[in-house]
Design brief:
Blueprint (H helix, E strand, L loop, with lengths): L2 E6 L3 H16 L3 E2 L8 E6 L4 H18 L6 E6 H6 L2 H5 L5 E3 L7 H13 L7 E3 L21 E5 L1 E2 L10 H5 L3 E2 L2 H13 L4 E5 L19 H10 L6 E5 L8 H9 L6 E3 L7 H6 L6 H14 L4 E8 L6 H14 L3 E6 L17 H26 L3 E9 L6 E6 L4 E5 L8 E9 L3 E6 L3
Parallel strand pairs: 1-2, 1-3, 3-4, 4-5, 5-6, 7-10, 10-11, 12-13, 13-14, 17-19
Antiparallel strand pairs: 8-9, 15-16, 15-18, 16-17, 18-19
Helix pairs in contact: 7-8, 12-13
The structure holds iron/sulfur cluster (SF4).
Length: 449
């Protein structure tokens, strides 16, 4: 059967969607390969969150299309957010592309690839397929896994889409309106993962803690998401549960209490801030204030002392003054985040912020980006002094992505830890001593009893 190479850009949701596509193609008999060279099918699962992400995928596709002259039978396709936002225009811009599949049609990729190959075999005029329609229930099609041997950590997609409409964000137009999967189906998926040896699941959604707000009722004072968390944490054999990416407004007291009451809910929250200035938060339509954000952090720290926070911050949003930026730095210093993804504002087409007054220069965005990264380094240095020598527990996932002589794992607070590779530890919940750190990557030794 033909070989398939899938390259994924962007977020964990894209990684999970690519896994489902890979699983479908494998079940149709295609061979999944690790390299694009010589692959019969090359699929790029794309991201539109920033212009740079799109340019990377376009650059890659141009290279592939150039090589295709030597592989006339090859099928190359664009999937995901960029496919959704640009649709058939991609065919005009990139002649070598045969397939464009949007974010609600990942379950159709296998059928389309079959069609394109049948046409090649039958030497009929190869059609070029564009499938970006919306499909009710498409969120329920991301449910199967292609686990690696002894894989102990897995993503579980619980919903798709977002109704928030932050003024800088293209996600609502690429991922559509919020649609959630039934609790029972998600719990069954987690049970099946545990039976296959998985010990940790990360629940995924663009606005994960507002899961089910349009579909499922509040019960016993618990939101649908809190009901789901309790159900997933109760699955026998699940050691650790995480979720990403939440929105601050979705943290009501029932969810905050989960960090006190659910022992296998990991004490780490990725809590996007975006800005520390109320004026800019308003212009972003973020629906919270800096005070509200700080109060939420306090509540979560009261529910679980030692809880770790990471965040997303945009620098250089239109109209951002020195004082707005100063307030962002102040809030970052006050929360003392474990880490933060700092993004220079990138205008996205058809988003309100793209046409706002006061667009800032790339140079100023870069300058503020550097200032914030230096502040994060300072915070990390202090944390290293605080934690070095301490004992912690990691779930050993396997080979480090950067150093084959090392295994990697994560603490419950989501800190990345490297240990000397030893098959004995693969897949284990391992107590370790933290011995060294770069501030963002930690090194440790197993605690030998
Ligand atoms: S909540 Fe997140 S995904 Fe939704 S519009 Fe805002 S930034 Fe985008």
């Amino acid at each position: 059967m033909p070989s398939v190479f899938i390259k994924t850009y962007g977020c964990q949701m894209n990684v999970r969607d690519s896994e489902q596509v890979a699983r479908d193609l494998a079940s149709r008999g295609y061979d999944l390969v690790e390299r694009e060279e010589g692959a019969d099918v090359v699929l790029l699962n794309t991201c539109s969150v920033r212009d740079m992400a799109e340019q990377k995928a376009i650059g890659k596709m141009k290279t592939l299309a150039g090589r295709k002259k030597r592989h006339q039978h090859q099928v190359i396709g664009f999937l995901g957010c960029m496919a959704q936002s640009r649709g058939s225009a991609i065919l005009d811009d990139l002649p070598g592309v045969d397939l464009v599949v949007g974010t609600q049609k990942f379950h159709e990729v296998g059928r389309h690839v079959d069609t394109l190959f049948r046409q090649r075999r039958e030497k009929t005029e190869p059609a070029r397929i564009v499938d970006i329609a919306e499909e009710t229930g498409s969120q329920n099609t991301i449910r199967d896994h292609l686990l690696a041997p002894r894989q102990v950590s897995a993503f579980v997609s619980i919903m798709q889409g977002c109704n928030m409409h932050c003024t800088f964000c293209i996600v609502p137009s690429t991922r559509g309106a919020e649609r959630s999967r039934p609790i029972a189906e998600i719990v069954a998926e987690v049970e099946s993962l545990v039976q296959q040896g998985v010990k940790e699941v990360t629940l995924l959604g663009q606005i994960v803690n507002l899961y089910g707000r349009h579909e499922f009722p509040v019960a016993a004072g618990r939101s649908p998401f809190t009901q789901l968390l309790h159900a997933v944490c109760a699955v026998p054999g699940i050691e650790r549960v995480r979720f990403t990416s939440p929105h601050p407004i979705g943290f009501k007291d029932d969810l905050v209490a989960c960090f006190r009451d659910l022992p296998n809910l990991c004490e780490h929250v990725h809590l996007p801030l975006q800005s520390g200035s109320d004026r800019i938060l308003k212009a972003m339509h973020r629906a919270y204030t800096r005070e509200g954000y700080l109060r939420l952090v306090e509540k979560l720290r009261a529910a679980h002392p030692g809880i770790a926070f990471t965040t997303d911050v945009i620098v250089g949003f239109p109209g951002e003054t020195e004082d707005d930026f100063r307030q962002t730095c102040e809030l970052v210093r006050e929360v003392a985040f474990d880490n933060a993804f700092v993004f220079r504002y990138s205008p996205r087409h058809d988003t309100p912020a793209a046409t706002m007054e006061g667009q800032l220069s790339e140079a100023l965005k870069m300058e503020r980006n550097q200032v914030l990264l230096r502040l994060l380094d300072e915070i990390a240095e202090r944390r290293v002094k605080e934690l070095l020598g301490r004992e912690d527990q990691i779930l050993v996932e396997g080979e480090s992505r950067t150093n084959p002589d090392r295994f990697q794992g994560r603490t419950r607070t989501n800190r990345l830890v490297l240990i000397d590779a030893n098959e004995r530890w693969r897949g284990e919940l391992l107590p370790v001593h933290l011995t060294e750190s770069t501030g963002f990557t930690w090194y440790a030794e197993p605690v030998l009893v």
